[in-house]
Amino acid sequence: MEDKIIKQISLFAENKPGRLANIANNFRKSGINIRAFTIAEAGDFGIIRMVVDRPEDAHEMLHNAGFTVSETNVLGVEMEDVPGGLGKIADVLGERNINIDYAYAFVTKTEKALLILRVNDIEGAILVLQGAGIRMIDMADIQQI
Amino acid sequence: MKEYWNPWIERMPISELEKIQEKKLSDLVNYVYQHSGFYRKRFDGAGVKPGDIKTLADLKKLPFTYKSDLRETYPTGMFCVPNEQLVRFHVSSGTTGKPTVVGYTQNDIDVWTTSLARAMTSIGVGRGDIVQVGYGYGLFTGGLGAHYGAEEVGATVLPVSSGNTERQIELMQDLRSTVIACTPSYFLFMNEVSSQAGISIETDTQLRVGIFGAEPWTEEMRRRIQESTGIKAYDIYGTSELSGPLFTECMYQDGIHIWADQFLIEVIDPATGEQLPDGERGELVITTLAKEALPLIRYRIGDITVINREECKCGRTHPRIMRVLGRVDDMLIIRGINVFPGQIESVLMKIPQVGEHFMIVVDRVNELDVMKVQIEMTDEAFSDKVNDIMALEAKVSSALKHVLNLAVKVELVEKGSLPRSMGKAKRVIDNRKL
Q1: CA nearest to A12 within chain B
Q2: Measured between alpha carbons, how far apart are the two ends of chain A, in Å?
Q3: For the structural domain made of A2-72, what CATH number should be given?
């Protein structure tokens, strides 16, 4: 079950010009590749969430650069890139009363869509999704995207 | 280890101390009337003759002296001795206006040094201690004051001055400093820098005592400092006009001992100038009983405090002033409500998720004062859920509202983004054009 958990990097950033550029520069310098990325903004601040190929290195690099950064356990769920793909996932989780804290999606080169999910019960979610025959990716998949 | 620097005077019954004060006060008014044109004019204007001052109860007949008097007579217009009797000048930083000049005779330096020697002894600092002085040396009185006091009690002084933080930490380890004297905000910064370098002040240094002052700080901040660094943190009090840092708490950390044979204190209502009974909060007024070059009569120092004349558990009989909440000059008036930065610090430091650094920003928007408090996100408090962060902001804001009775906007900013100070911390940005 553990191997289905993806380490997402979350970062606190003030909502100010140049903040994102600074973060992106740090990634470029350390050769870390961002696979999925989203910003949740709330007025004066934002939370940058991303899935990267080397999460441990990214965490250490950002921490040393003075950022407030954490690793969060999320799931990477494979969706058919067709209408109804998302609904199916939301349905099975909802039926088991598992709440989605947030989600963001991206499309891979292989015509699949990937949904990154943070849920309130990650282990429960893995069981439910597996039971419904929904495939989840692991860190090895992330590195190969 | 000595328990008292001068047991006879420090434990003298208060009635005897008051006799000394009475004698010194009467000598003082005669002295300033004779030697200072400024005071002669001031006394004449108030219709007071030196002969009218016979007992301590007569003190209230004397006119006040203000910081503005020192500015208006800049540089040496209030001095009572000719320049050739001076051994030193100090000049205040002028954070709240034009700088003020203080002159010292050799005796003034000796009295200052003795005051600090008593204070340092009362917190167990003496021979065998290595005192790292991280207050600025130079025109500011902090560095040289702490330096002379520490030498007097037989400690070894490490005169690093302020700044050069990596070096401070390196020397603290290499020379095994046991005592640090600096502003509390600078010590927090040192702690931050050393933690980043993987050095723990608690386990990797010999530091056991901090002598912190030159800016107001709170009981909550003390708790934070003591818990995070394992040292005992003591408050030191003074101001350049009175010579410099002069007084500290004793080991019981229950108020600052003011040496009654050298200084006479009262607390007044700042609005009316009337003396307040002991135990009531008001503005501290100090009369210097032993200064020669620049004696101050009923000086409105501007700090808000409470006098406690009960004998301390340490056996000292001299009156104490309870932790200074803030200087009248630092007080903000927000929509008619008085706010001291110290009140805000005390609220913030009670919330474990809030770090030690903060900034108060005041603006006027549509004719209305708006106060914003910026605090830094900490690693411990960070959550990647927006709701959690908004909940923390709301929690801090509601705690501030509860104490200040004011709506305060709380803004979380990035770790390390608020200015760090090596001297007196700047905690307020007031953008109102008042």
Answers
A1: B414
A2: 21
A3: 3.30.2130.10
CB atoms B384 and A44 under 8 Å:
no
User: Testing the interface with A: which of B379, B384, B385, B414 to mutate, by most A Cβ within 10 A?
Assistant: B384
CATH of B331-430, one of 3.30.830.10, 3.40.50.2300, 3.30.300.30, 3.30.1950.10: 3.30.300.30
Q: Which residue has the tokens 């101390």?
A: B17
Q: How confident is the model at residue B95 (pLDDT cuts 50, 70, 90)?
A: low
Query: Quick check: A72 contacting B, CB < 8 Å?
Result: yes
Q: Say yes or no for a CB contact (<8 Å) between A68 and B384.
A: no
Q: Which letter does DSSP use for residue B104 in this model? A: E
Contacts of B390 in chain A (CB under 8 A): 42
Residues B28, B20: Cα–Cα separation, whole Å: 12
Question: B415 and A42 in contact by Cβ < 8 A?
Answer: no
Output B34 or A86, whichever has higher pLDDT. B34
Smallest Cα distance from A4 to chain B, Å: 20
Kindly list the distances between the CA atom of residue B255 and the CA atoms of B96, B209, B217, B249, in Å, as whole numbers in the listed order.
Answer: 26, 17, 13, 6
Q: Does residue A32 contact residue A69 with C-beta atoms inside 8 Å?
A: no
* CB-nearest partner of B412 from A8, A45, A72: A45
Residue B221 confidence class, pLDDT cut points 50, 70, 90: very high
Nearest residue of chain A to residue B193 (CA atoms): A66
Tell me the pLDDT of chain A (145 aa) as tens digits: 678 899 999 999 998 888 889 889 999 999 999 989 999 988 889 999 999 999 999 999 999 888 999 999 999 998 877 788 788 899 999 999 999 999 998 877 776 788 999 999 999 999 999 999 999 988 888 887 7
A-B contacts at Cβ under 8 angstroms: 52
Third-level CATH fold of B1-328: Rossmann fold (3.40.50)
pLDDT digits (tens, 9 = 90+) for B180-196: 999 999 999 999 999 98
CA distance B251 to B234: 8
Residue B409's H or E segment, with its range, is: strand B408-413
Burial of B83 from C-beta contacts in 10 A (0-12 / 13-18 / 19+): exposed
Contacts of A47 in chain B (CB under 8 A): 384-386, 389
Q: Do B415 and A101 touch (CB under 8 A)?
A: no
pTM of the model: 0.87
Given CB atoms, is A91 within the 8 Å cutoff of chain B? no
Mutate to test the interface with B, among A6, A9, A12, A19 (most CBs of B within 10 A): A12
CATH homologous superfamily for A74-144? VC0802-like (3.30.2130.10)
Phi/psi region, residue B239 (left: phi>0; alpha: psi -120 to 50; beta: rest), is beta
Q: For chain A, what is the total number of helices (H) and then of strands (E)?
A: 5, 7
pLDDT tens digits, B371-423: 999 999 998 899 999 999 999 999 999 999 999 999 999 999 999 999 998 88
Looking at residue B20, what is its pLDDT?
98
- The interface predicted TM-score (ipTM) is 0.85
Among partner residues B386, B413, B414, which is closest to A40 by beta-carbon distance? B386
